[in-house]
């Protein structure tokens, strides 16, 4: 299969591993801390057993790029409340169903108790549902980074063109660059609970939309190298080698390992489409990172009639995270899943306490499912 | 010809209504014209409340299994709910090394269901049963109000017989066993999902729904001391291996590159973020036998059309944690966990 098999070749992996080892040895015992921003990378790293191929000098730090993980409990509680309104059908991606909100209620449990919650794989299914059920209110629970935002914009325009009055979007789309900027800024601050990093493995699919340009500030203002990498295992290994070479030669620039899909400018058409329908929020809450300015999107004024936050009222109380759950620190890269007292004991994928154990892109789920830091079965 | 048959059902245009489940004349007409006519066999023809059966040889042991089918959609590439309901139970019985003999069939039908679809499904079941060498000897039909079920659900139970000295059981799986797989994984789950999502492939992907009793008979005839057989249906290869590891109190080591997976299944899984190890199969089996006899068993499997793509995928090791560890194509290692959650509902 073109673009897949060739990026999983064992002989090439062995060669890359050797080059990485040579380059890492040149640091004479220093440790290189690289953050893979995306959960997609975290998942690939463990699915393919990449840590087994890396020398001990390389420390991979998992980033916050898992959309299910960073959504705060208050937004999940809001979605549950919307789903419980009579005649509302809430449509969501599968992973969201299992994330516990406050009081450990999840959409899955709300559904079992009678709320009409449907799992969809594409937002266009929600539009079809709205067309076929004119007496129901169809709400699409939109989550995700820049990758999943254009499809949300498409269905909003589609629903408008169809004149649908019973379709709305509960928008929770977030943006990558503000989170990266926060990590860089906090990393400088010794008192902040955020590790100082030597470089970033940059997002692949997100970058296909936004381009490589938004990351340049990391290199210019913070002196940190960024290598945009594809999701295949050899992409990840190649990007680690490229980061090592930058660090060892004292450089800091944005390099693009994923040139087969990513350009500096990104997908301009998709960017225009998003701006037609969505606009920046002043501030949005991220689990683990807190309230970040200009980091989330809402429907713009021309589409506010389809904004579920305007159409329905919900009353979300202050929810407290389980105090033992280390999800917030793990999302900042400050801790590893095995540092959490709940990991693999009270918290497992079948019975998740924190969101990082739910999504396959979450660090805890990736560690647990692929056997890192686990004691027994 | 009975009196009832003189009033033929309007199969092309008719629909199931509540009278078809009432137990009265309409029920009898439905059973006779749609089911009994195609399932035709002496035990069923006696028209009693039960089927009366005789073992082929005295002293044989029985294997008994039951399965319910709620698959959506009812018709899919490579099969339908009827053939699946026969293959599913036949395969469960065959995994004991038993020769499947008799099936029961229970139908829960939603009011308004087209008679033409029911007729097509009954014929498909009859053909599948004939193909497997089993008889559908007893059954039941219930009708529920519109909206109380989704079209049609089928339950089948099956009985098979095997020689008393044969002992195929997960408990016999032990360290030193080889793990064999009869063919590529993931075809069924991905064919259903692709059909639901209207995805298309360069070469059409069909469900692997098929009877495995012929293959099992062929494997037993090889004389290899097979310790256990299992068909990896819901939860896929990964979950089935974990179940066996837990029962047998062992661990397993797999070689990822040895596991056969079709290009189309691999591609669809990449696209949808699924792992083929967790996708359901309906026509594959896993076999365990001593390492020294593994090649002999592999040759026997490959000589049968249902096992032509068989492969040795790993081995059983002592491991108190009961972990399934797998070497990735890159040379790293990972564990293969139980399925978490339910990625594909209603696939069987």
Word description of this protein:
The complex is a heterodimer of chains A (377) and B (348). By secondary structure, chain A is α/β, with parallel strands linked by helices. Chain A has three domains: 5-65 and 176-256, HypD, alpha/beta domain 1 (Rossmann fold, 3-Layer(aba) Sandwich); 69-174 and 266-311, 3-Layer(aba) Sandwich (Rossmann fold), CATH 3.40.50.11740; 327-369, no CATH class. Chain A contains 15 helices and 13 strands. In chain A, the strands form four sheets. Chain A has a five-stranded parallel beta sheet, with helices on both faces. A four-stranded parallel beta sheet of chain A has the order 4-3-5-6, with helices on both faces. Chain A has a two-stranded antiparallel sheet with strand order 10-13. In chain A, helix 1 packs parallel to helix 11 (233-248) and helix 7 (149-162) packs across helix 12 (268-277). The longest helix of chain A has 16 residues, at 10-25. The radius of gyration of chain A is 21 Å and the shape is globular. The mean pLDDT of chain A is 94. Chain B is of the alpha+beta class and 348 residues long. Chain B folds into two domains: 4-162, 60s Ribosomal Protein L30, Chain: A (2-Layer Sandwich), CATH 3.30.1330; 170-335, Phosphoribosyl-aminoimidazole Synthetase, Chain A, domain 2 (Alpha-Beta Complex). Helices cover 29% and strands 22% of the residues of chain B. A seven-stranded mixed beta sheet of chain B has the order 8-10-7-11-9-12-13. In chain B, strands 1-6-4-5 form a four-stranded mixed beta sheet. In chain B, strand 12 and strand 13 (333-335) form a beta hairpin. In chain B, helix 1 (25-39) packs parallel to helix 4 (115-132) and helix 3 (81-94) runs parallel beside helix 4. Chain B is globular, with a radius of gyration of 21 Å. The relative contact order of chain B is 0.16. The model of chain B has no long low-confidence stretch (mean pLDDT 94). The A-B interface holds A 1, 4, 8, 10, 13-14, 46-53, 94, 98, 119, 121-122, 233, 349-350, 360, 365, 368-371, 374-377 and B 197, 246, 257, 263, 266-267, 270, 272-273, 275, 321-323, 325, 327-335, 337, 340-341, 343, 345.
